[in-house]
Structures are given as C-alpha cells and as structure tokens.
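UvrABC system protein C: structure, please.
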Amino acid sequence: MKNARGAVIYVGKAAVLRNRLRSYFGSPAGLDRKTRRMVSELADYEYIVTDTEAEALILENTLIKRHRPYFNVRLKDDKTYPYLKVDLAEEFPRVYITRGVHQDGARYFGPFASAGSVRQSMDLVKKLFPYRSCTKKITGTDPRPCLEYYINRCVGPCAGLASREEYADVVQHVILFLEGNTELVTGQLRGKMAEAADQLEFERAAALRDQVAAIQKFEEERTVKVDSPRMTDLDVIALAMAANETWVEIFFVRRGKLIGRDHFFMDGPQDDEPGEVIAQFVQQFYATALEVPPTILVQHDPPDGFLRQRRNGAVRIMRPQRGENRKLMQVVAENAAEGLAQHRVKWLNRSDAIQGALAELEEELSLPALPRRMECYDISHIQGSNLVGSMVVFDSGKPLSRDYRRFKIKAVEGVDDYASMKEMLTRRFKRLVSAWGVIPDLVIIDGGKGHLSAAQEVMLHLGLQHIPLCSLAKENEELFVPHTPESIVLPRDSQALYLMQRIRDEAHRFAISFHRNLRSKGSLKSPIDMVTGIGPKRKRMLLRRFGSLQGIREASIEDIATVPGLTRSLAVRLKQTI
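Here you go.
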C-alpha cells in the first residue's frame, strides 16, 4: 500500500486479495485505530502473486526490511544479524563471527540480536574449549606455540602439539556444546581424563578435569528454573510493550536446558495488539533462524503455517496456561519487563538524550524555561477503595526519589478521580514555599482533559496559574495544556515523549505500590480496631482474657467491662461492632 507520495506505508499478504482489501473499506466503526489511520493515507496499491503461502511470507519479510513501512511492526534495525560460524572446510577449523549464511558445509549458530551478544557467546565458548583463534596457516612446524597454549586456551596445533584428529575432537565438542548437548561433551571429556590418568599424563588429566568442572558450573547456572524432564527442544517468547517500542525476550531450551537467551526490539505503530507483534516477530525472526524447534511457547498465538514449512515438519505453538510451561513463560515475561525497564534507565543516563528531551518539551509545550524540575501526579484505587495519590519528581530528567510523596485521599467518597486529584494538589500546593521550598518548572497530570481541568481549577484557586501544567493521556499518548483545545501529539520516536512516559510510568508504579500496601494492611485489621477508644494495649488485654475474637463475641458485656481499662460503654460499643 502506498500514500499519495508513492511511499510504501504497509506490506501485507492475503490468500484472497478481494476479501482482504474489502475488509479495509467497510464501516469505520468496525476498524481499529491503526487501520483507520492507514486507510486515510492510502492512495494506491500493487500486488505480487506467489505460488505458496511460504513464498508470500518470505517475500513479505523481504519487502518490510527493504521499505520499512510505517504501519508494519518490524524488528528494529533489522539488518543482517550475526551468527557464529564453525568452518569445517578448513583443515583446522576456526570459530568466528559472520553476518552471512551460505551452503558451504560450515556449521552456523544464531542469529544473535547484536554483535555484543554474539561476542559474549564466543568468549564463553573460547573459555571452555581450546580451539585456535589465530588466522595463520597451520603447518605443525612452529618452534613454539603462542601464549594461549600455556593458559590452556589452545591445544597448539601450530607447533605440532595436537594432531588433526585431536583438534577435530575439540571442534566437535564446540559444536555439541552450541547445540546444547553438554552431557555428551562432559562424558567424552571424562573418558579422556581417565585415559590420561592411566597413562600417567597427570597434567593433561588435570586440564581436562578443570574443563569438565567449568562446563558443569556453566550448566548449573543456565539450568536454573527451566530444567524439567518434560521439556525437550523449545523456544519461549514473551514481550514487554511501551508506547513506541517493544522488547521481545526469547529463551532457547534444548534437551530441557537453557542454552541461550536473547532480546530484540520491535518498532512499529503503537496501536498494534501484543498478538500481532508476537506474530510479526515469529515470522521475521524464524525467516533467518537456522533452526525451528518442534515447540514454541508464546504469550499470544501467531499463525504457524510458515514455521511448519521452514522446519519441514509440524511446529506446535502453545500459549501455556498452567504447569511448568506457564512458570517458564512467567520467567521470560519478567525478563522482558526488566530488560525494557533497564533500557529506559540507561536512556535516562545519557545526558545528550535528556537535554534533547527537555529542549523539545520546552518548545512543544511553549514553556518559559527548560523544565528542570518536573512533578507528576497519579491517582490509584480499586472500585473506590483505598484511594491514594502519588507525586514523583524528576530533576534534569532523572528521578529524585527523596522528594517523592504519597497521599492518602481522605475527603473523597466513592470513585471520583477529579476530586481526588484536587485534594492531592491542594495539599501539595497550598503551602508551596513554606513547606516545600521549591517550585516545579512543570506539573504533569496522569490523565486526560478532565484531569487537567481539575488541576487547573486548583492552581487558579491558589493563585498559582503561572506554574506550567500539562496532562498525558495514556490511550493515545496525547498531551493537553491549558487554554488549548487541541491535543499535542509528539512523534513516536520523540525523546520528549520517551521522558514523559518514563515519568508517568514511575508515578503510576509509586501509586500502585502504596495502594497495595494499604490493601495489605487493611486485610490484616480486626473488627476490634474499628472501635473508637480501644487501642493496641486494650486489644491485647481483651485477647489475653478471652483468647480469641470468637471468645469476645461469646462474652457478656459485664465480663468485658471487667477488663482493666474498659468501661461499660466501651464494652457495649465493642459488642455492637463485632
């Protein structure tokens, strides 16, 4: 699909083209927000006929990479991803990084998300297995080996210290390890260790013993929480979504053990459902993956026809509901959420990004100065119970946790976010200078126009209308400012929007944590606590005398009144309450 300028805005596939196009031009009420926006920009389209669905999927993936259409979800920076290559065509094979996969008899492992992750894997393999890392021609006639031989990082074929067959065993162990078959590797190494000991080659036996111990240690670390006799070969995929990017976490489990993990960023419209993002990731990732396991666990079910043809066999895609698979999915989902949070924290530590975001906010919101100190307010409740508010503070784009505040809403009954916001802001700003000693450069309200109006009313009443004010509505990530009816929509890749979302999410997290604490305390309260005049000391004396709450219920008013510190009127109120 193309817009009026001829730019490709969407690439899709269809078994029946007529039906697919018809679905875009029905009643707008039946279309999601993303599709309505896309259709509004559509000016022309073209189509390509393929012989099979697999060909259509491969072509779709290729065109998405080439044109990077705005309305397609896609792997961020979807360049050619790196692989580990074991070049078996060489007499003494090396292990190195490559970005191309060819039918040349070599073994490839990957793809990896970045050069950093592939180098990390290669460093690990190099520590565990003594293959050569040099590029020189191996003749076996060098007068002495390099330093790697003396630190047990190479078997020294260059100096004739290892035959071609012995070196081939090392390379075979590397391949087995990368495939996840560590039991076979350690078994073979133990056999060689025993053989070396029998031949009184104790130094060689000790080196093999250390190698086995290192592999076992690594195996113990990577089998935490995922080892299960029912697990064979599977991939586990979960995601964490923000407004303008998505972190996809993938765990690779082979023979019941976690042999690796990686993460990818997905870029695309913020209106996409999680299931669609998962489906696009599965399609694009496995288009270049060297292996498709028989089982893939996902949070949402994507179509699996493409995978079936890629694997030349059945692929079972599951959204686990219970048991070990469900626990494993929760682990991967937690890693995805933590990864996205850490990514945002790293972004906030980049001073150039922060300065750019602050300058952009100053321009877009027409602020009188750079918003160094920003305060964000949020309300949390469940069906009107335990109404709480939170205030978080960011100074120069970074959280200032010592200035965070929590507010327990006292004067509002039922569900009334606007009244709750008014109470919180009034308590915060009525003693602005005397109690707080600092004036914010920007006040951010978590909500839409209604929340902004409530906040504006408080500021006008307190004579603080000079303090810049805005609200951020989560549904469409729109900004609202006073005296401007239209919303301000920042670009999806805007650094200012990124910072605003981070502040809003932190306020929400802080409010939710306070709300949960109050609910937890409330669930532990006794009916005795509801009686005015009975504190912790009298409560202990009552329970010591009657043993339990049921014992107090069964006691007479006269018996209760004999407890030290209690009067008859208190005893009557207690019996009426419990």
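Notes: The chain has 20 helices and 16 strands.
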